[in-house]
Amino acid sequence: MRIAADRDRCIGVGHCVRTAPDLFDSGEDGRVSVRNSEPDESRAEDVRTAVRLCPNAAISLLEDPTSGA
Ligand code: SF4
Q1: Boundaries of each 4Fe-4S ferredoxin-type domain copy (predicted)?
Q2: Residues 6 or more apart from 15 whose CB is under 8 A from it?
Q3: What is the residue range of 56's domain?
């Protein structure tokens, strides 16, 4: 799985950082930066939660098409 972030869409609310601080961070401008764009599958639920909570659809989870998931 891979995390994609569109910093142009991010409005800096920070739900993603609070949900998974090991995966997301706030840059100096307050917008999201991805700390680990290819986390272990065990983190999928947290990533999905962050994606769901983001108010501006700035982050997305790309499932690995070769994993069969
Ligand atoms: S939840 Fe969305 S809008 Fe808020 S900081 Fe994260 S990516 Fe940006």
Answers
A1: 1-29
A2: 50, 53, 54, 55
A3: 2-62
Distance 20 CA to ligand 1 centre (A): 12
pTM, to two decimals: 0.89
Read off the DSSP letter of residue 43: G
**Residue from 15, 23, 25, 48 to probe ligand 1 pocket by mutation (most atoms less than 8 Å from CB):** 15
Work out how many domains the chain is built from and give that number.
1
- For residue 18, the domain's CATH number is 3.30.70.20
pLDDT, the chain, mean: 93
